[in-house]
Write a structure and sequence with these properties.
about 30% strand; single chain; globular; 5 helices; alpha/beta; BirA Bifunctional Protein, domain 2
């Protein structure tokens, strides 16, 4: 049996609202049978996103104060609480029909975590899971976050891996709703700069291996801009 085909779209740096609109359009097309599976890779301009279970208790400033500092805020349908996305972070958005991958949400999240763990290992950083808390940790600190939404077995949202980014904005929130939790990055763990472009190049074959799929990179003209 041939491997499932997945289109790879590398968006570069995007504003969160633009990439979210592209995700939702691709998912609607996937549900309607008008498009196949897609893997989107991007990094975002500074934004805090609040999932379905997020209130304001885990924001250390008011939303107005956060926006005054130049951050966007987005309330979205993924699971989980509040997190931060910014330059230097690899953000992974698979739009997949899980009918192809076993219709098992826990297994899907495990696979997303596994891609992050293997990417970290490629840089000599050990990543591990913690029971009851989706994402990946490096020692005491969290280095990758997972938040997904499934509708009619088609996925939305996904994974964020801190590659080489300013971690200070995480101090304005309780990341993932965990009070006192610290965040880290591949660069912080290595004590050296890590180009995001390199991580974006290393990640797709890891994803293909973990998910058992074949990736076909789309040309820039076929890639949503925003």
């Amino acid at each position: 049996m041939s491997a499932p085909q997945v289109s790879l779209r590398v968006l570069g740096r995007t504003r969160y609202a633009a990439s979210l609109a592209a995700q939702r359009e691709l998912r609607a097309q996937r549900i309607a049978g008008e498009a196949g599976d897609t893997l989107m890779l991007t990094e975002h301009l500074p934004v805090f996103t609040l999932g379905r279970s997020a209130g304001t208790a885990h924001l250390h400033l008011t939303e107005r104060e956060i926006e005054a500092r130049g951050f966007d805020i987005a309330r979205i349908e993924r699971g989980g609480d509040v997190t931060y996305h910014g330059p230097g972070q690899l953000v992974v958005y698979p739009i997949l029909d899980l009918a192809t991958y076993g219709r098992d949400v826990r297994r899907y999240i495990w696979r997303l975590e596994e891609t992050a763990i293997r990417l970290l290992a490629a840089y000599g950083v050990r990543g591990e899971r913690r029971a009851g808390t989706p994402g990946v940790w490096s020692g005491r600190r969290k280095i990758a976050s997972v938040g997904v939404h499934i509708s009619r077995w088609v996925t939305l949202h996904g994974l964020a891996v801190n590659v080489d980014m300013d971690l200070a904005p995480f101090t304005l929130i309780d990341p993932c709703g965990l009070v006192g939790m610290e965040m880290t990055s591949i660069a912080a763990e290595r004590g050296a700069s890590v180009p995001l472009d390199g991580a974006m190049t290393r990640y797709p074959p890891i994803f293909a291996e973990v998910f058992g799929c074949a990736l076909q990179r789309m040309e820039p003209s076929q890639t949503p801009q925003g």
